[in-house]
């Protein structure tokens, strides 16, 4: 195959990256280095179009995550299981479908590779009674461990041991009726709330609790509070029927049982809670049911809320935000599936990301449907009616059967779902109404910042005279505007209809009094889906679902071009700033510690050089573009012995522009980094705002095109640590800042020529004065001793 040109490439699904082999093939094997990332774990192996025995090699999906460990078996531990004769219970990690926990009536098993290998989960002796160990009612696997619900009490099994959860963790000690975790994986999402989203829900008849990371539980709501929210009668009976996570990454659905007499029938209501907005919304959903009936909900993967709900015999569907409802029926009009499966009852309903729905009865009879359709078809029998089985999704995106054998072991078998559905469609003459459904949606998550647009297209090809079209549906806050463009082409009996749609915002944030509130109201998460107006069970793809997050991408940041932490000696040092150079004129000099890890390498400039920062925008994929928006700089330690070469008049101002001095005066109660920003920026290019003032002042706002530069004092060198901030209120929802350091140096300029001449004149005058005075002093001494000998000779006296 290598000789024919085969060479596999690994593509990531979410971030659209590609990794190739940089080495030659060794012993028939290609080696590709792929980085481990949590938010880009889904990958696809693609090869070149090379035939092998007249066949092409199919692309293959894999989930490549950080190593996942299974809880080790401890010798002497005892098995924990469901009641004798009960069906299989399974829980899997929504984002790592290979990580699964299986509970049988004999043992509990755990795997991290779709049961290619597995271990048993057991509990310490004495932690539970024999009856409690054999009474598991539900199970959940989470990053914090495996959770068992037994006799109304929640237990945790982790690497640290086996723990009973109760009042000490803000949970009830008993009376828990159900637990539920997320079914759909959204690696990325936008939440304006500071708290992280919950991992799973726990509920009693009257209370709902949420579990957060590190085993933190919080009560969400009580039925008494829900009565007030829904304006229900105080005397009526309201209980929690079930709790389920929706297809939206931040929403939780609570199903409520409501009755007044409570003897024959009850009503089931639905309310949805948003973990971001903290709001409850009652849905247009009401189901009349017998008082003792139990329904199991499962939300489908779609933008609009949609779910299927089943009891022992029938499947109820609610699609398109609960506007398309009914009971799944066969072509013959049978809605009771038990009648078509030898009176067996529904055991499992499996739904995948492609919209396939498998309904498995306890005797392993399987029915098939597709989301947004109203009929169901019986598939071929795949296994005998006594084997306990479960349908799961493998890491490659394919379905497989999981069998629990009587000897206490596990067995798996691939299930060709696509072939089975095509085989049944061939016998029923079911045809897809369209021939192709395409789009250019390359991601499941898009970020949209201020001033940005997102343009996508979707296309449907169908036979003439069928009148199909593409439906665009969105769910979430009404913060986006849309523009549509439709093109149509008909040829050779087929029609091609292409819809191009652009998502954008049209909001001006400049000069707003409530800037932050306006930003908050115009950010959020919008779910969008493209789907054909009609389709059937035989259509390969039913819809395309993706998110548009409007707000700040926390992976976005700015940096100043030319600055890094390389190319200089890595060390911290201290220096002193002269008090006269500081903005607030303190009484003492300021000693500053330069932290290299924080500030990076300083750029050394001659203080005769002007400097204009070039701001660059980056995200988690690297460099994006140069920033052309307005920005400001300030020295973080308070230095103001620098200025700008452009004046306000030279910059085109019609009134006095904002300056650091004026903004500090207006916001004395705020720290320096908060006195001026996009929230209070007002431009100076209009007569309608501001006062004329002195336009010969320095213009302290910079952008890439206005030619404004920073210049330095010539009388001294210094170290400057600047912070830069994007000032344009219409540029980004993020508070984009960066730091850079500049060290100025150079020769101190000579003083004035006149001053030097005067100084030299005084110095020479002093010299000659001293010289003249010395001369006269010397001459005086000389004259005195030229006429007077230094020593008088002593005369000798004669003696008589």
UniProtKB/TrEMBL annotation:
Ranges of residues in domain CATSPERE beta-propeller: 78-426
Domain CATSPERE second N-terminal: 1-35
A GO-annotated cellular component: sperm principal piece
Record localization: Cell projection, Cilium, Flagellum membrane
Membrane-spanning residues: 753-776
Pfam families reported for this sequence: Beta-prop_CATSPERE, CATSPERD-E_C, CATSPERE_Ig-like, CATSPERE_NTD2
Keywords: Cell membrane, Cell projection, Cilium, Disulfide bond, Flagellum, Glycoprotein, Membrane, Signal, Transmembrane, Transmembrane helix
Protein known as: Catsper channel auxiliary subunit epsilon
Source organism per UniProt: Mandrillus leucophaeus (Drill)
Taxonomic lineage: Eukaryota, Metazoa, Chordata, Craniata, Vertebrata
């Amino acid at each position: 195959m290598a000789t024919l040109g085969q060479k596999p490439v690994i593509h990531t699904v979410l971030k659209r990256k590609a990794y190739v082999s940089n080495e030659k093939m060794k012993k028939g094997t290609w080696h590709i280095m792929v980085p481990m990332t949590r938010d880009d774990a889904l990958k696809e192996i693609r090869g070149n179009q090379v035939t092998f025995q007249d066949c092409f090699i199919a692309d293959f999906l894999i989930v490549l995550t950080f190593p996942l460990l299974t809880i080790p078996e401890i010798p002497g531990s005892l098995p924990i299981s469901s009641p004798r004769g009960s069906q299989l219970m399974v829980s899997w990690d929504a984002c790592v479908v290979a990580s699964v926990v299986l509970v049988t009536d004999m043992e509990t098993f755990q795997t991290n590779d779709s049961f290619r290998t597995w271990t048993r989960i057991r509990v310490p002796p004495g932690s539970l009674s024999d009856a409690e160990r054999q009474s598991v009612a539900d199970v959940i696997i989470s990053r914090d461990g495996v959770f068992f619900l037994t006799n109304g009490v929640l237990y945790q099994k982790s690497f640290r041991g086996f723990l009973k959860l109760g009042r000490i963790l803000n949970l009830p000690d008993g009376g828990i009726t159900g637990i539920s975790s997320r079914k759909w994986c959204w690696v990325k999402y936008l939440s304006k709330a500071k708290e992280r989203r919950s991992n799973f829900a726990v509920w009693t008849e009257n209370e709902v609790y949420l579990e957060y990371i590190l085993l933190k539980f919080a009560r969400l709501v009580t039925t008494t509070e829900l009565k007030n929210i829904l304006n229900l009668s105080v005397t009526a009976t309201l209980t929690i029927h079930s709790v389920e996570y929706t297809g939206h990454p931040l929403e939780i659905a609570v199903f409520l049982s409501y009755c007044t007499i409570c003897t024959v029938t009850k009503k089931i209501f639905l309310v949805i809670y948003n973990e971001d907005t903290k709001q409850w919304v009652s849905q247009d959903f009401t189901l009349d049911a017998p008082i003792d009936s139990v329904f199991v909900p499962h939300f489908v993967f779609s933008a609009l809320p949609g779910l299927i709900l089943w009891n022992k015999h029938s499947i109820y569907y609610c699609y398109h935000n609960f506007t398309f409802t009914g009971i799944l029926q066969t072509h013959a009009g049978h809605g009771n599936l038990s009648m078509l499966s030898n009176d067996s009852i529904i055991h499992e309903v499996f739904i995948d990301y492609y919209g396939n729905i498998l309904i498995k009865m306890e005797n392993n009879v399987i029915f098939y449907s597709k989301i947004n359709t109203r009929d169901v078809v019986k598939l071929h029998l795949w296994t005998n009616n006594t084997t306990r089985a479960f349908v799961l999704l493998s890491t490659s995106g394919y379905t497989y059967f999981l069998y629990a054998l009587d000897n206490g072991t596990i067995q798996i078998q691939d299930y060709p779902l696509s072939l089975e559905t095509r085989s049944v469609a061939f016998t029923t003459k079911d045809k897809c109404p369209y021939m192709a459904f395409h789009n250019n949606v390359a991601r499941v998550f898009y970020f949209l910042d201020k001033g940005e647009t997102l343009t996508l297209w979707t296309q449907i090809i169908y036979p003439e005279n069928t009148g199909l079209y593409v439906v665009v549906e969105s769910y979430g806050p009404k913060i986006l505007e849309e523009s549509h463009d439709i093109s149509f082409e008909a040829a050779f009996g087929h029609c091609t209809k292409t819809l191009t749609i652009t998502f954008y915002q049209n909001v001006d944030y400049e000069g707003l009094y409530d800037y932050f509130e306006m930003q908050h109201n115009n950010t959020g998460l919008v779910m969008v889906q493209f789907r054909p107006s009609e389709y059937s069970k035989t259509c390969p793809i039913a819809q395309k679902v993706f998110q548009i997050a409007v707000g700040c991408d926390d992976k976005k940041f700015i940096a100043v071009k030319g600055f890094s932490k390389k190319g200089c000696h890595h060390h911290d040092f201290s220096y002193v700033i002269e008090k006269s150079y500081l903005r607030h004129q303190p009484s003492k000099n300021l000693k500053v510690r330069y932290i290299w890890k924080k500030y990076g390498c300083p750029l050394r400039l001659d203080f005769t050089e002007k400097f204009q920062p070039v701001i660059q925008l980056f995200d988690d994929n690297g460099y994006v573009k140069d920033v052309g928006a307005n920005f400001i700089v300030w020295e973080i330690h308070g230095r103001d012995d620098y200025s700008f070469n452009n004046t306000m008049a030279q910059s085109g101002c019609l009134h006095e522009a904002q300056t650091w001095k004026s903004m500090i005066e207006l916001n004395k109660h705020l720290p320096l980094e908060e006195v001026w920003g996009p929230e209070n920026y007002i431009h100076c290019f209009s007569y309608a705002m501001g006062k004329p003032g002195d336009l010969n002042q320095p213009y302290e706002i910079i952008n890439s095109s206005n030619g404004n530069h920073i210049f330095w004092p010539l009388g001294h060198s210094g170290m400057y640590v600047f912070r830069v901030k994007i000032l344009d209120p219409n540029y980004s929802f993020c508070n984009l800042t960066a730091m850079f350091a500049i060290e100025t140096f150079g020769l101190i300029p000579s003083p004035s020529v006149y001053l030097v001449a005067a100084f030299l004149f005084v110095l020479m005058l002093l010299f000659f004065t001293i010289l003249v005075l010395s001369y006269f002093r010397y001459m005086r001494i000389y004259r005195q001793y030229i006429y007077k000998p230094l020593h008088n000779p002593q005369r000798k006296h004669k003696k008589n």
